[in-house]
Design brief:
- By secondary structure, this protein is an alpha+beta fold.
- It folds into five domains: 93 residues, OB fold (Dihydrolipoamide Acetyltransferase, E2P), CATH 2.40.50.550; 67 residues, no CATH class; 231 residues, no CATH class; 81 residues, LOTUS domain-like (Nucleotidyltransferase, domain 5, 2-Layer Sandwich); 122 residues, Conserved hypothetical protein from pyrococcus furiosus pfu- 392566-001, ParB domain.
- The protein has 15 helices and 28 strands.
- Strands 7-8-5-4-3-6-9 form a seven-stranded mixed β-sheet, with no helix packed on it.
- The radius of gyration is 28 Å and the shape is globular.
- The two termini are 54 Å apart.
Length: 663
């Protein structure tokens, strides 16, 4: 075992970093399965046996030719039965073949790294003619472009994006259970400098699953700066935070460590390694010094500077200052300590901590919870309690935003006062306590609800739950007396209770008719009276893996999408290239789909990844350019955060474009 790449602990082997093996194909043999003889840059010959049982994603059989370069991400030696040693390639996503010799590929790589703005053919000074197909290669004139095209670019042009992303990949980055593969490199250019411990490492929440982390390390409650909602009402991430009327759907906050303070703002860094500039801060910066941490609620992203710094706006009195000495390291450790200090007798706390499968452990060698000021301890405890009780994920609009943590009072209360003459200051009264006075009663109701659901042979319609509760316990279910406006909000607060959005036919308008209720561990099937029972049975018979579907059989999960891919390519330009056969459908990374019901609609195929790619394929299908496409069906459910469609996924709005595709 190589100590620089792998580490063995507690009986399991963990990758410490990424690595990539490059070699030029010397021999190709098709005996039962592909077998390649490959030579690396040191002249060593090694064997690669391809054992891929499903259709390959980025490793293409037609590219297995002598003289092309094979790239394998994180390969390991394998001892074959014929006593030879080589590589057993079992994944179609972790291998890629560049259509150029290794020596030529090395030259192209050197150009991208050392002189990306020089002519790719003659190495002349600043070149301004950009290849319209790849958007990466630059030339000083048409002649150089033609010569370079004939020499190598004709074959490498569709692969330049993958090559550029490969050399820009941070190989020293810890995989954290999420290995970068060539399928990702072909579609993603922007990644967080440091990912979340749950594996999320992208710059768009569109690619995020539900985060299992608790505390400040949850990337949905405390998102990266790149994922903040844009200040612009037409921004890419606003649909995950605001509804169509601009009302907040949830609570969120940006956590930063301050390293420079100026008159009307500050420079800081997020725990994801992003550089942030908070400007136009009417709340001022008094009392803030480098090393402190600031929790900025409802922060929005104004723009991104040329150096990659995120310009963030924070409204008046919507930030909390933690006077840490060890910066983010100290605050995160204090957060873990605050989690440990929660009452273990609280049913909600106990259940939330038991459900969380990833949780930070407080360290004794770093600044901790007890090292903070008393006011900071109180604020941190409130934040932790709010999150454990699930308060971040729902928002009742402007009023709820104002009283979420009683920020107007709290943000002023945790500031050190400036020296001044004695004055009378009238503070607003503190808001209501975080945990309702009826917390014991709420805990008992949670137990009672689970007892009712445990007796049900199948999951229960929400509208039927109050009657079942009264029959079982002999008393009515009064959610309003517990401080909840609706039954749904009570159920969302009760850990162990699963609420599924799936309205029943003919029951719209009845309280609770828009949801199924069951225990989280329940595997009860839908009611046989449901008009969608046949489709649900079909979904149960579906197998994950590669399959072919018509684009119109797949439904969008987003209400709107950007007009560009993450690599900067225009969607309509990609559509044109597909129509004119400059690109093949197989050149587009595979869309991942999942089968399940959505809010207000029956079970269907949803895009788990690839809403923009689906838009292109839908347009191409409408013009007769494609009948079906290969997709990868995954055994997952699209998180509610990403399910922003308002029409069952039948169409999507292309931001900045007047057209939207329908059925």
């Amino acid at each position: 075992m190589h100590p620089h790449y792998l580490n063995e602990a507690f009986g399991s082997v963990m990758m410490l970093r990424h690595w990539c093996l490059l070699g030029e194909i010397q021999e190709v043999a098709m005996v039962i399965r592909p077998r390649l003889a490959v030579r690396d840059r040191c002249g060593n010959i090694f064997r690669v046996h391809v054992h891929i049982t499903q259709r390959s994603s980025t490793l293409r059989m037609e590219d297995m030719k002598v003289g092309y370069t094979l790239a394998i991400m994180c390969p390991e030696k394998h001892a074959f039965q014929d006593c030879t040693t080589g590589i057993r390639q079992e994944s179609g996503d972790t291998a890629f073949i560049f259509r150029a010799p290794l020596s030529q590929l090395t030259k192209e790589t050197d150009r991208l790294v050392a002189h990306p703005r020089r002519c790719f053919h003659c190495d002349a000074g600043e070149a301004h003619d950009v290849c319209k197909k790849c958007g990466i290669a630059v030339y000083c004139g048409a002649r150089c472009q033609l010569e370079h095209w004939r020499e190598v670019h004709e074959h490498l042009c569709p692969q330049m994006l993958v090559l550029r992303n490969l050399i820009q990949l941070d190989f020293a980055k810890h995989p954290q259970g999420n290995l970068s593969d060539f399928c990702e490199l072909a579609a993603v250019t922007g990644q967080l400098p440091r990912g979340c411990a749950c594996g999320f490492h992208d710059v768009e929440l569109a690619n995020s699953d539900d985060c299992p982390m608790l505390g400040f390390e949850n990337h949905l409650d405390y998102p990266p700066a790149s994922c903040l909602p844009d200040t612009d009402a037409d921004g890419v991430s606003r649909q995950f935070f605001f509804d169509a009327d601009g009302v907040a759907l949830r609570h969120w906050a940006l956590i930063v460590e301050v390293y420079q303070v100026f008159e009307d703002g500050l420079f800081a860094e997020t725990r994801f390694g992003e550089k942030v500039c908070i400007v136009g801060t009417k709340w001022g910066t008094r009392g803030v010094i480098p090393g402190n941490c600031v929790v900025c609620f409802y922060a929005t992203l104004q723009s991104v500077g040329k150096d990659g710094t995120y310009i963030v706006a924070v409204r008046d009195k919507q930030n909390l200052l933690f006077r840490t000495k060890a910066g983010l390291e100290g605050l995160l450790n204090a957060d873990a300590g605050a989690m440990d200090a929660l009452s273990p007798s609280d049913f909600v706390v106990e259940l939330a901590l038991s459900i969380a499968n990833i949780r930070s452990i407080a360290r004794s060698d770093v600044e901790g919870f007890m090292d903070l000021a008393v006011t900071d301890q109180a604020l941190l405890t409130k934040l932790v309690q709010r999150q454990v009780y699930g308060k971040f994920r729902t928002c009742d609009g402007t009023a709820d935003v104002q009283c979420f943590l009683n920020l107007t009072f709290a943000c002023e209360a945790n500031r050190d006062p400036l020296p001044q003459h004695p004055v009378t200051v009238a503070h607003s009264a503190p808001g209501p306590p975080l945990v309702p006075a009826a917390s014991e009663q709420l805990t008992q109701v949670g137990f009672d609800l689970q007892a009712v659901l445990a007796q049900q042979p199948r999951r229960l319609r929400g509208g039927e739950l109050p009657r079942a509760f009264e029959q079982f316990h002999g008393r009515s279910l009064e959610w309003k007396s517990l401080g909840f406006k609706t039954l749904r909000r009570l159920l969302n607060t009760c850990p162990g209770v699963l609420v599924t959005d799936e309205p029943a036919s003919g029951k719209h308008g009845k309280s609770g008719s828009d949801m199924w209720v069951s225990l989280q561990s329940s595997t009860n099937a839908p009611s046989t009276n449901s008009p969608n029972s046949e489709k649900s049975e079909c979904a149960g018979a579906l197998k994950v893996g590669f399959m072919f579907l018509r684009p119109d059989q797949i439904h969008f999960t987003h209400d709107s999408i950007k007009s560009k891919f993450q690599d900067g390519r225009q969607l309509r330009e990609t559509l044109r290239q597909l129509k004119e056969c400059e690109l093949q459908c197989t050149d587009i990374p595979t869309i991942q789909v999942s089968w399940h019901a959505g809010e207000g609609c029956d079970a269907r195929f949803w895009t788990y990844t690839g809403n923009r790619r689906l838009w292109v394929f839908r347009q191409l299908q409408a013009e007769g350019g494609v009948q079906d496409i290969q997709v990868l069906c995954v055994s997952k459910t699209v998180p509610k955060l990403r399910m922003t469609t308002r029409n069952g996924g039948c169409s999507v709005r292309l931001r900045g474009d007047m057209l939207a595709i329908g059925h």
